[in-house]
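chain below, 293 aa
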Amino acid sequence: MSQTVSDFIVSRHHQWGVRRMFGYPGDGINRVFGALNRADGAIEFIQARHEEMAAFMAAAYAKFSGELGVCIATSGPGATHLVTGLYDARLDHQPVLAIVGQQARAAIGGHYQQEVDLASLFKDVAGDFVHQASTPAQVRHLIDRAVRIAMGNRTVTALILPNDLQDMPYEEPAREHGTLHSGVGYRAPKTVPQDADLDAAAEILNQGKKVALLVGAGALGATDEVLAVADRLQAGVAKALLGKAVLPDDLPWVTGSIGLLGTRPSSYMMKECDTLLMVGSGFPYAEFLPKEG
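prediction:
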């Protein structure tokens, strides 16, 4: 039996390091589920009770594992239910790929049962990359780009698969004009600030008399560095929700979380400091905050 497009989809994701998917089955995507079953556990499928929860699970998996989160759902309402969870991933800058089914290619545009313009639906939440496959040879570069862009941009991407395409024999792209030949692999770049920017940040911090740090998810894995900076600046540290694991709460100068569900000491420190250094919290910069009056 020749490899189907669905079999290739599963094997390609496995090559990318995907080991689990979160979702809910349905007719529009069941051929991919058949391929998952044939793969004999190469990729674990975790079934949610609702597609929305599957997207939240994929986002949470990305947040706490540092890996790509993948959610999968059927066409029509199955795909639309993913959107809320996908916005959670996008707003928290997490790499998540949504794989959704679609009606047969010949029926699209005919107001067929549960037909939804999914490319338009996902255009905002997955604006960096959302595409619908139309031929078997196209699937390879769509998967590769969807995964690479999700990881590189730390964002949501989406792949739409018509149900008749899923069952077709897979074809490698031809070696001819008008074709693309993509590969597996992504390495995160090392980003280093300009010396002038570091000098400017140091000048601002040196002016501060009451310095505070706000750390977020971007500081995970940099505990020693955050400790050293806080010690040098004699600064208190508050934590964004996703940065809770950066430092333990029992340190005397750690004030806990910030925000609507934050602590009173964190709120007081943010109001009373004159210099705020935000590290890995979505806004990595130092800002001098002059006091009014």
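The longest strand covers residues 96-102. Residues 283-293 have pLDDT under 50 and may be disordered.
thats it, cya
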